[in-house]
Write a structure and sequence with these properties.
heterodimer, A: Immunoglobulin-like, Immunoglobulin-like, 6 domains, 14-stranded mixed sheet, B: mainly beta, Jelly Rolls, eight-stranded antiparallel sheet, 2 helices, globular
């Protein structure tokens, strides 16, 4: 995916995960703590805040501007917060000098545009786990947006509604107030200690320009759960909420007694401290309710089956779960679970042929095999018939079965052409088109274990997004994903592909000849015939090119959200028009894995642990393994992976860095252990200044090729129990009798391991270290994030060194630094600031020596366009070089005795550079003012030469 | 609130009236045999709510009540049979020993001891040992079991493994409709199977076995005692539905 710079509203969706758990204690200490007092009597939620219960409570105030944490908001906002064990109550008072100009255009619920009204926002992390939190926005007329965020903000559901939430608002002479009563039960409390995270923010527009302020001093986004103020509900008794709820388990859509029902199980566990007699209810919106008695003593848990009629015409629905005390009606738990509704009376999945239901030219298929699932309750004994017919209807093979079953149908040798498998079960008939394909050069397909075959040869697909083909080829990579598909046409497109082919690379490109087909607005609508024709045309244009890897259908479509049926239709076009190349999709959420499960042949979960400057991964690095596992559990697609190979600081996040080699290797092997059969790292466009990343990945690919039997025998791999969730391990047989054990420490602490070992002695691959198991156990200690591959073949293990990349990195780093360049940002702490862009945290690239990241100058008058260069201490400079695009003019100045002094005007020094020399001046602050250019990419500064000195 | 005959204790009067209107007539016709609440009992006598049935210590047996008590239960008081108890609570000879399907037995149980004995009799009717006469309804290796025999062979219906847990209240019910035996735990039907033999219990040893016993094996010696609590024991002469079983557990049809 492309990390995007978000608006203030959507920032919260992604930025949350940027927070480092490691730096958290320090951050938390700086944040004010909130004491949530217990009140005996609930206030009337009328927006007045005059109830007696509020009078004794303290105000929390001191809101600061977003991205300017030291600056107090010009108009004060303050709030009080209380609880009564059932609700959280907020009283928020916002000073407003111009109440007549308050914006309040939104009136309906869950319209995200309410954030563009004058509004207050409340964020609650109910379990203070920095994972699941809730967001409430209320404008001055009481319009509400409420949403649930999961995975630290990765997954957003605005369909989530806080049932029973009460709002009161009032506009006064010099302020407005908002009063909220938020039912605690809706917040899914798991931690009942009353420890929460809370932030309150305000968006003010009445003054004519946006002023965003927050109780917690914050950069980037309000919705960063790890930065929320720690809050404690005083004297709370929340035990009645202490229920563990898991599921739905084994969900399925079935026809039962003529109705389509959604069936499965929920696990309920009672930790409330006492025997509970309650009632579980489940319902879809506007649907009937399923009810079940739940009698559980404290400490007990049980699975409860459910069966609920469902309207299959609505593809995405919310399942509402409630648990209430049977006598008092008190709500113990409430959950809203998104469900993708999909019912098929007959589901036929072929296992042979294993991929796309196609018999490729080099395959010898003597039987059709697969799984039949009949979506009807009580269909166990339905008589089933199978028939394979050619395009003339001639029956070539037939067989029988009963109920849902695995089937095998022997077939004769088939000529090239289309065939139809017809399955009849009871009143239902289903078909599968099976194609016997001709040999085609450049074909990319997959075997039964998900391994890629290019022209019939096994390949380790390895590469990244936005690679430069020449550099990528030199590093040994073999695939590239490009976002340029919609912008390349005709000869330019052909030349681009030809160059890939010359270099032996394959590239995935989207099948949209115009971004009008792939922009968010289009993606939300059904596919039109015109669009379909354009897609067919693009596929026909490229499908025979040897550089084609496959068709990239969508990048995080759940964020749009794209219509699944549209993507499914595009996928079907891809399969029909080009059976020889896969369709690929990238999803970044659990909901997306499910929602788009039937779209594309390959999915690439993207996993970005957010590596922090001066720290470790901001999120558990194990996310790579977990996301991939989750994806493979909910869809049957080929699993590739898109791990983080970039510095998120390049996308407007502060305090970030790119991963180092140990972290790359950790993610690489996590993915392999989770079943990845291809790598497409994100991303290469800004990596010139990060040689450890691109050279480290090249090293990993080399290692993977050397240990190729570990890769290609992955389906024989057996997970080993390490007894520690932070340590992943697996054993895998290699070829020629060798044996592998792979261990990955996902913790920042050293970990001792003791694992069952078949071999007598193991050698750490690339490390020249041996391990002799004792009593069948291999023991070792892994350092932070360390990955170790143990293999019984000494020669293989010692045929390469893990350190091979290091001298290459040193050499590449040396090339980035030009001797004497004062502005080289990796050496010192030089800081660049751009007058036209306050948000980016990537300005250091102006001094990274790589020249590749362009900072475009848009909507800015040259007179006001300035680049500042600040050093931690005074430097003596006499020359400045500026690189960029369409450079026209600039004045170099230095701050001397508190005044800006003009030094020289920049003069052209080449096609893409300007330069200015001036008498040596000592200062810690320089700037280029009156800058006129399309964009700038690099700044170099030098002191006087020996002669000048 | 407790009255003679049927009563809906611990419920607001209006609610009781509503329940009465909805359900009481059905229960009246259903053949309640006995309901033991243990709310107002003494260790010397455990009486059914209508006073027609009274468990007393076996004649000539132990009358040491030091290990018998009454504590807070699920609904009101619960009978507490502590470790070391030697009292054998029995109905008078011949009373309820002719229990035949259809019937329902239901009660709340909480076992407080986790020893290794292979069986803890929660509730025994007559004798099922050693020649498989009679029947028993018991806690068997963390499962609930209904077991009966005719002198030649024993039959048992048992819930899946580990459905009962020590130190936890469980509502246990056995429903025999003449053909199907269903065992409920905490209101959930966990096992339902055809009763593959006629439910016959022919006490062999009348001296010891022909007694309807509570919390002990019906012999003169202490064997497989239930150590823990019991509450709201019901006996019906008809098979109750699941909804009725749940209502018994929840106390909305308690008597």
């Amino acid at each position: 995916m492309i990390p995007k710079h978000r608006t203030f509203f959507t920032r919260s969706a992604r930025f949350a995960a940027a927070l480092l758990f490691l730096s958290l204690p320090a951050l938390a200490e700086e944040t004010a703590k909130i004491s949530v007092a217990k009140i005996a009597e609930a206030p009337e939620i009328d927006g007045q805040g005059t109830d007696a219960c509020w009078s004794a409570l303290p105000w929390y105030s001191g809101f600061t501007l977003i991205n300017q944490k030291e600056t107090k908001a010009p108009q004060e906002t303050k709030f009080k917060v209380a609880h009564d064990n059932d609700h959280l109550y907020f009283l928020i008072e916002a000073e407003e000098s111009e109440p007549a100009r308050l914006n309040a255009k939104v009136s309906e619920r869950d319209n995200p545009r309410v954030a563009y009204d004058d509004c207050v926002e409340v964020f609650i992390d109910p379990n203070r786990d920095f994972d699941r939190f809730y967001h409430f926005i209320v404008n001055t007329t009481g319009a509400l947006y409420d949403a649930e965020y999961l995975q630290g903000g990765f997954l957003t559901s605005k369909d989530w509604d806080s049932e029973g939430l009460k709002i009161g608002t009032a506009v006064h002479e010099k302020s407005f107030t908002v009063e909220l009563a938020i039912p605690l039960v809706e917040l899914g409390l798991e931690n009942i200690s009353g420890r929460m995270g809370i932030n309150v923010a305000r968006e003010s527009y009445a003054g004519g320009k946006p002023v965003l302020s927050s109780f917690v001093p914050i950069d980037g986004s309000f919705g960063q759960p790890a930065l929320f103020a720690p809050a404690q509900l005083e004297k709370c008794d929340l035990k009645h909420f202490a229920w563990k709820i898991g599921g739905p388990v084994n969900p399925a859509f079935l026809r039962r007694e003529g109705k389509i029902v959604y069936e499965g199980k929920f696990y309920l566990g009672n930790s409330t401290g006492k025997l509970q007699m309650s009632r579980l209810t489940l319902r879809f919106k506007n649907g009937p309710t399923f009810g079940e008695h739940v009698i559980l003593d404290n400490g007990l848990g049980r699975e409860y089956s459910f069966s609920l009629p469902v309207d299959v015409s609505i593809p995405d629905q919310m399942l509402h779960l409630e648990l209430k005390d049977n006598k008092t009606g008190q709500k113990f738990a409430s959950r809203q679970i998104p469900v993708s509704v999909s019912y098929s009376p007959l589901s036929i999945t072929l296992t042979n042929p294993p991929y796309r239901d196609n018999i490729y030219s080099d395959m010898n298929v003597t039987e059709i095999a697969g799984d039949l699932v009949i979506g009807e309750a009580g269909s166990e004994n339905f008589p089933v018939t199978f028939e394979l017919a050619d395009s003339d209807g001639k029956i070539l093979a037939s067989g029988t079965g009963a109920g849902s079953c695995k089937f095998r149908l022997p077939i004769p040798a088939l000529e090239e052409g289309d065939y139809l498998l017809t399955v009849r079960a009871g009143e239902y008939t289903g078909t599968k088109k099976i194609r016997k394909l001709p040999k085609v050069k450049g074909e990319v397909r997959f075997d039964e274990n998900g391994y890629m075959l290019a022209d019939g040869q096994s390949v380790i697909p390895y590469g990244g997004f936005s690679c430069n083909p020449d550099r990528e080829s030199a590093l040994g990579f073999n695939l590239n994903f490009s976002y340029m598909g919609s912008y390349l046409h005709g000869q330019k497109l052909q030349e681009t592909f030809d160059r890939y082919a010359e270099l032996g690379l394959k590239t995935a490109i989207n099948c949209y000849p115009s971004d009008k087909i792939s922009n968010p607005e289009a993606m939300r609508k059904p596919l039109t015939k015109q669009e379909a024709d354009q897609i067919r045309s693009r596929i026909r244009e490229l499908r025979s090119h040897p550089a084609l890897l496959g068709w990239y259908l969508a990048d995080e479509p759940e964020a749009v959200p794209a219509l699944p049926s549209r993507l499914k239709e595009i996928y079907e076009i891809c399969k029909e028009e080009d059976p020889h190349h896969p369709a690929i999709i990238l999803n970044n959420t659990a909901a997306g894995y499910r929602k788009y499960a039937e779209v594309a042949d390959i999915t690439m979960p993207d996993a970005y642990p957010n590596f922090l400057s001066g720290g470790d991964a901001g999120k558990p690095i194990r996310e790579v393994y977990d996301l991939l596992k989750l994806s493979s559990e909910v869809n049957a697609r080929i699993q590739w992976i898109t791990p983080q190979a970039f510095n998120w600081g390049d996308y407007s996040r502060t305090g970030q860095r790119a991963p180092d080699f140990a972290e790359l290797r950790n993610m690489h092997y996590q993915a392999i252990l989770a079943g990845a059969t291809g790598f497409c790292w994100f991303e290469f466009s800004n990596l010139q200044c990060e040689p450890e990343v691109y050279l480290g990945l090249a090293q990993l690919l080399k290692e993977t090729k050397i240990l190729n039997d570990l890769w290609f025998n992955g389906y024989k791999r057996v997970a080993l129990d390490t007894g520690d969730p932070d340590v992943l391990a697996a054993a895998c047989p290699g070829n020629d009798g060798r044996h592998y054990i792979v261990t990955v420490n996902c913790s920042t602490s050293p970990k001792d391991i003791s694992l069952p070992a078949e071999g007598k002695i193991y050698f750490a691959a690339g490390e020249k270290q041996s391990f002799t198991p004792v009593e069948g156990k291999l023991t070792d200690q892994l350092t932070k994030y360390q990955t170790r591959v143990y293999v019984t073949d000494q020669a293989l293990a010692e045929s390469f060194s893990l350190d091979e990349y290091k001298p290459k990195v040193a050499e590449a780093m040396a090339k980035l630094y030009k001797e004497g360049n004062l502005a080289y940002s990796r050496k010192g702490r030089v800081r660049f600031e751009l007058s036209w862009d306050k948000r980016s945290s990537a300005f250091w690239h102006l001094g990274d020596g790589a020249f590749n990241m362009m900072f475009w100058i848009r909507n800015s008058k040259p007179k006001d366009t300035t680049v500042s260069i600040t050093f931690p201490e005074k430097v003596k400079a006499s020359r400045l070089c500026l690189f960029g695009k369409n450079l026209r003019r600039g004045i170099v100045e230095a701050e001397v005795n508190g005044e800006w002094v003009r030094l020289a005007e920049l003069k052209p020094a080449g096609e893409k550079s300007m330069e200015a020399s001036f008498p040596a001046v000592e200062s810690a602050k320089f700037r280029i003012s009156e800058l006129s250019a399309s964009g700038i990419s690099e700044i170099e500064m030098y002191g006087p030469s020996q002669e000048e000195k | 609130m407790k009255t003679s005959g049927y009563s809906y204790r611990k419920l607001p009067a209006v609610f009781v009236m509503l329940l009465c209107a909805l359900n009481l007539s059905a229960l009246d016709e259903s053949g309640l045999i006995a309901h033991f609440t243990f709310d107002d009992d003494t260790a010397a006598e455990l009486k059914s709510t209508d006073g027609n049935y009274v468990f007393k210590p076996r004649e000539g047996g132990s009358a040491d009540f030091s290990h018998v008590g009454f504590v807070e239960g699920v609904h009101g008081k619960a009978l507490h049979l502590k470790s070391g108890n030697t009292v054998h609570y029995c109905l008078p000879p011949g009373v309820l020993t002719d229990l035949k399907p259809p019937f329902t037995i239901a009660l709340w149980i909480k076992r407080t001891e986790d020893k290794t004995e292979h069986k803890h009799a929660v509730f025994c009717g007559t004798c099922a040992d050693p020649k498989d006469y009679g029947f028993e309804f018991s806690w068997f290796w963390y499962c609930l079991t209904l077991r009966w025999g005719d002198g030649g062979k024993s039959y048992a219906v048992t819930t899946p493994a580990r459905t009962l847990f020590v130190d936890k209240w469980h509502h246990a019910a056995a429903v025999h409709d003449g053909k199907i035996v269903t065992l409920y735990v905490d209101g959930m039907a966990l096992t339902a199977r055809e009763a593959d033999a006629e439910f016959v219990h022919v006490p062999k040893d009348k001296k010891f076995a022909n007694r309807f016993t509570l919390g002990q094996f019906p012999t003169s010696f202490s064997a497989y005692p239930h150590v823990g609590l019991m509450d709201d024991l019901f006996l019906f002469s008809r098979p109750l539905s699941r909804e009725e079983i749940v209502a018994l557990a929840e106390g909305t049809l308690s008597r």
